[in-house]
Amino acid sequence: MKNMKLKELTLCAMLTAIIFIQEELLTFIPNVQLTVLLIFCYATTLELYQTLIIITIHVFLDNLIMGSLNPITVIPMLIGWIIVVMIAFFSKKTNTYVKAVLSIPASILYTKCFAVANAWFLEVDIKAYLIADIPFDIVLCASSFISIVLLYDPITKFINKKLGKEEIKTTTKDPQVVESSNQ
Amino acid sequence: MRQVLTKIIVSVIVLAVSIVGFILAQNFVKKYNANKIEANSIEIIIIKENTVIKSKTINFTDKDKLVDLLEKNFRNNLSFDNNKERILSIETIEQDETHNIEVYLNEGKTDKKLTEIELTKGLKIKFIEVSV
């Protein structure tokens, strides 16, 4: 693992706080969240290990606050978010709409991690669980899709700016403009 | 500007589809639950200090008795005294004088013995281990 610069370290801490606070603020609306959007933003702008650190801290803090710090909740949640991070990471070079579409299977896989854990450890009727979960899956997928379509570009632009990275758009300048600026 | 407009239109369409999907899914879940109750089944939930240890829907026939169903399906979670009239403990909890098991029938607390509980369609039985 690389040593993080102070600026990156501070930014990661702030991004962790943002992902945690938004989830706590939106807990009153079941499954409506910006976590998937933020994970997609982080995974495409930060290093993979940085995103994984953010997610791990977020999972532990979230469960600590919600009083669900037990393996039956923490393990599937951590696995679920790591799956989302991986999907986001490997969709780095795709456009926003593809990312939004990919957020749907990512969200479904995230919720299914809980289904497996509940069926395995609590011996819950898996069929009944999956059927009861369908409306909430739809809400999660819709909130992930819409938030990515509307907010992914401005957020990544902001993070890239803070990281001092050049955006892809700025590298594809109009040739005439580049020429005149060289003169 | 056009890009923003496209994004808003796509979002509105997806939102509308999601709302319709959500309503249809809710109806489907309601129908599924109604069909489940129509069958001769009961739901049994075992709770230990706010955590669900096991939850199961069991089908029964007129000949079945609750204690037999419990012993058959929850042998690893519950233990009984000899005459099967009272649950002794949820086995994952150390049995001591500070814990007690409360029985709830369709969300209402009951003092009935297990042998006195009649099996009815859609009955929901909760066993909750609490500290006293």
Jot down its keywords.
heterodimer; A: 183 residues; mainly alpha; 80% helix; disordered C terminus; B: 132 residues; alpha+beta; 5-stranded mixed β-sheet; 2 helices; 7 strands; 34% helix; elongated
Tell me what the structure shows.
The complex is a heterodimer of chains A (183) and B (132). Chain A is mainly α and 183 residues long. Chain A has helices at residues 6-25, 35-45, 48-66, 71-90, 96-121, 126-163, 168-171, 175-182. The longest helix of chain A has 38 residues, at 126-163. The radius of gyration of chain A is 18 Å and the shape is globular. With 132 residues, chain B is α+β, with helices and mostly antiparallel strands. Chain B contains two helices and seven strands. In chain B, the strands form two sheets. In chain B, strands 2-1-7-5-6 form a five-stranded mixed β-sheet, with helices on one face. Chain B has a two-stranded antiparallel sheet with strand order 3-4. The longest helix of chain B is centred in the N-terminal third of the chain and has 37 residues, at 2-38. Chain B is elongated and about 75 Å long. The chains are: A mainly alpha (183), B alpha+beta (132). Chain A binds chain B through residues 70, 97, 122-125, 128, 131-132, 134-135, 138-139, 141-142, 145-146, 149-150, and chain B through 7-8, 10-11, 14-15, 17-18, 21-22, 25-26, 28-29, 32, 36, 51-57.
